[in-house]
Each structure stands twice: as C-alpha cells, then as structure tokens.
Description:
Shape: globular
Helix content: over 70%
Low-confidence stretches: 176-198
Amino acid sequence: MKEKLQEYALIAEIISAICIVLSLIFVGLQVQQGAEATDNNTEATRSQVRESIVNAELSVLQMAADHPYLLQFDFNPEEHTEQENGRAQAYFLIMLRTREDFWVQYQSGYLDEATYRSYRNILLLLIANSDFYHGNWEGWTNGSDVNRGFIEDINRELQNRRDELEIFDQLRHPGLPMVTLRQTSQIPLWLSGLSVSR
C-alpha cells in the first residue's frame, strides 16, 4: 500500500511538472502574440512574464527544498531509489524548460540580461558539476525540440566558464592541488555563496 502511495505521489509530481512547463509555454505564446498585436501593453506583458517566472521558480525551489538530494553535485543514481531517480530527471527537465522559456523571454526583450543570467546560473552549475545532470543535458538537447539558440547559449557559457569551474572543482576536492588566495579572490560572483567543503 505504501509503495502504491509513493507511485501515485511520483506520478502527481511529474504531472505537476508537465503542467508547469505547459503553462510556461502557454504564457510564452501569449507574450509573443501580445507583442505582435500592440506595443502599448509592453509593461503589462513584462509584469505577466515576471509573474510566470516567479511562479515557475517557486515550484523549482519547492521541489529542491522538499528533496535536497536534487541539488547534490555528486548525485549518483545507483544510491537512490527508482522514484528518486525519476524525480531527479523530472527536476532537471523542469529546470531546463523553465530556463529555456526565460531565454526566449530575454530574446524577446521581456526579460533583462542580468535577470536571465541569474536564473541560468543554477542550470550551468548543475550541468558542469554533476555527471548525472550533464548526461541529462546531453540526452535532452541532442535531437530534441529544445530551442537551438538556448542550447548554443548554455554550451557557449559552459565553454567560457571552464577555467572558472576548474578553480571551483579544486576547492570542492581537497585532494587536488590547492589554488592560491589570488586565484580564489578572482572567482566570479556567480560562484559566490556556494558552500565549499575542504
């Protein structure tokens, strides 16, 4: 009976995630149609976009708060149940699709660059630091309907940040040679606030 309830809970979470993604796509379509119809409602449209972004982000944060293992860089599917693995894949899909929608809103002029970049950073960290999430990124972006411009943006940024990520990796893994204080003081703001164990 307990297993059945867990299965129903997982199914409900996945359905909820799909609904969130669909609502973001719907809002994105509404935004595009509204922009074409008139420029007079730009501020109202931006407000609607901000509201949809906040709602989407709250659901992503709630999922991570309810299941902290989702943000582990060393997430290993072999150490988790089938339900937890399914939840981690659903979490990554939600993260990917919401960030893709944010990119579309940024490209349309409804979201400023700083805001887009701030939301994009967690996706970059997950892809760059987790074999599990990197594999999901490769799987979802090869031959799928994910926006090509968005994929190029993420891949370009991952390439640009490789050196920065190597410094971060040295801080995360005490067995690697220690970086100098000068190097650590140059770690960019997007890495600040992360807990680093030595």
